[in-house]
Structure formats: C-alpha cells, structure tokens
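User: Can you help me understand a structure? I only have the sequence.
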Amino acid sequence: MRTFLVFVAIGLSALVLLGWWKYDSQFPKPSQETVLLDAGKRATLERLRKEHKFEPYDYPPLGYTGIATPEDGVTARLAVNNVIDAILEQKDGPISATKVSALIGQAIDRVSMLETEDRDRTSDYMVEIWYLLGFKGATGQFAYGASFKLPEGYGEPLPPGWKSPREPRPIG
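Assistant: Let's start by predicting it. Here is the structure, written out as tokens:
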C-alpha cells in the first residue's frame, strides 16, 4: 500500500509539473531590447500619467464599461501610475525592456484581485506604456490567444484605440 501511495504522489507531482510547464510555455520570452527615453516620450508618458484612467470607452473590438468600484479604481490607477512614475524617475537615455517588464509585472500583481475587465484594462495600459517607449518585442508578462493579432514585427497586440504601433489613441 505504501508503495502504491508513493507512485500516486510521484504521478501527481509529474502532472502538476507538466501543467505548470504548459501554462508557462504560453508566455512569450521577454524582450531584451533597450530603447532611449527622451523628452518626447517623457512628455507623452506625463500626459498618460495625468489622464483620468479607467473611464468607459467603446474602442473596437470590445468596449470597457469602467472600473467596478471606486476602491478598485484607486488600486488600478495607482498600479498604472506607479509604472509611469518609475520610468519618469529615470534619466534620459537607455532604458531596458527587462526593467520595464519587471515594473509591469509588479503592477499586474497589484491588480490581481480586481475583476477581469479591470485587470484587462490595466494590462492594456501596460502595453500602451510599452509601445509609447518604443519597444517592439514581447513584455513576457502576457499570454494571448489566436484571436489577438500582433502587428508585424511586434510582440504585443495593439492597445484599444490604437491604429498602428506608431498611431496611439488620443491621450489626455
């Protein structure tokens, strides 16, 4: 009986490891790029920082009904603004995708208990920051299904309202 239980435990452990491997393989490898933070990017990020975030919108393909509760709004706005603030604290010059991806990961962790629609909107803001900085590769923080189209040469789908990687929605 004891031998049987050992084999069952080993089998269950193997299934858990296989499940984790399959889950983890859905996330693309994070970019190793470096971009330059300059006055233009800084100004755009500052406009995004000042924008009243998490408002309802109807950008295709899906709209957004707005933040679920005022408390959730505080949490979500703080997560986005903290990423922007950390970037703006940097001196003009090179900034690595690794550093920005880590900031994005921390923000996503902060909103993990919010409703799905609000977590998704936070992710959209993170991808906007990524594109505004000029990164092309994947953040490594998000896994997308086949229904999300990636612009050619880019590792993240366009955020809501963006026409192309170089044509953002009106910010601010």
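Now, to help you interpret it: Residues 2-24 form the longest helix (23 residues). The first strand starts at residue 34 and ends at 37. Let me know which part you'd like to focus on.
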